[in-house]
Design brief:
By secondary structure, the protein is an alpha/beta fold. The chain contains ten helices and 18 strands.
Length: about 300
């Protein structure tokens, strides 16, 4: 695990405020019904040796620079959260996935530079070249695939609901007309609108937890693993109801980096085959999924 450079500072005295979502908080558009979100480019096989990337490739450019810049969160328990004892370090499943990519590129640790970002910054920072890669619980959607390129699915999840322990809510169907918190720019916020709730928007998932604790909202909704991370921080909450979405998650790169997508898919395929993915999933995701996480599935094409 490498020290995380400060890129987004949050004042300890800042009190997050959940507010009713506005048009700018939502993703650009709905998916095309004919789209296949789980499809990604065929993995690079064989993978080049670390430090010996094909000349002229996106990977060679990164190796020549000596570091890969990865956009991550710092508020998602199990995926990317600050270590309680070492505040300059972030740890979790997404961080270890990013480290695996760094090792595949360079052959040794110490070459991953982390940029802490919000969910809404993921696509813009890729598009303007400020980060090379985003590993940040990012659901693969067809609308997003028109803006950035995704690796294959590296973990599966679906949207659920978190409420106070004494809430009578049993699932999303009980929240029509109710205030439900989620993060702006995510797929969750559009789903909540379509389900007839009153979406409230914040920048970070922990802000939603604060809003729930202060009774500014009636519930929080996002993927089940992220909700489990919030539940772990507040034992007076519970997750209710079954999943009501199907959400594959991918690592994202700039749209014109198809060679890097193939490299990521080759790295992911190797991790799934040699047990690395299972080891990382057991370490980080077993508590989030209340058991053994299932291996993700991807259809590779092209």
């Amino acid at each position: 695990m490498q020290p995380v450079p400060t890129s987004v500072s949050v004042s300890p005295s800042k009190i997050p405020v959940a507010r009713p979502a506005v048009d700018a908080d939502y993703p650009a558009s709905a998916d095309d019904a004919s789209c296949r979100a789980r499809e990604s480019l065929r993995p690079l096989d064989p993978l080049p040796a670390p430090g010996r990337m094909p000349a002229g490739s996106s990977m060679a450019e990164i190796v020549a620079r000596g570091r890969i810049v990865v956009g991550v969160d710092q508020n998602t328990q199990y995926f990317a959260a600050r270590n309680h004892h070492e505040k300059d370090r972030i740890e979790g499943f997404d961080i270890d996935m990013a480290e695996a990519v760094g090792l595949a590129l360079f052959g040794e640790p110490g070459h991953v530079a982390y940029r802490v970002i919000t969910q809404a910054q993921r696509i813009p920072l890729l598009q303007n070249g400020e980060v090379d890669l985003v590993v940040d619980t990012m659901t693969i959607t067809c609308d997003r695939k028109r803006q950035v390129s995704f690796s294959g699915n590296y973990y599966d999840d679906g949207q659920r609901v978190l409420v106070p322990w004494d809430s009578p809510v049993a699932g999303i169907g009980d929240l029509r007309g109710k205030r439900v918190c989620t993060v702006r720019g995510t797929t969750s916020i559009a789903t909540l609108r379509d389900k007839g709730t009153l979406p409230y928007a914040v920048d970070n998932w922990t802000d939603c937890l604060v809003a729930l604790q202060r009774a500014e909202v009636d519930a929080v909704s996002t993927t089940g693993a992220l909700l489990a991370g919030l539940r772990a921080q507040d034992g007076d909450t519970k997750i209710v109801g079954p999943r009501f979405t199907d959400e594959p998650h991918g690592m994202a790169v700039r749209l014109d980096r198809a060679d890097f997508v193939r490299f990521l898919n080759g790295t992911l395929t190797r991790m799934l085959a040699d047990g690395t993915w299972e080891r990382l999933a057991r370490t980080w995701l077993s508590p989030a999924f209340d058991g053994e996480p299932q291996k993700p599935e991807t259809a590779y094409v092209g």
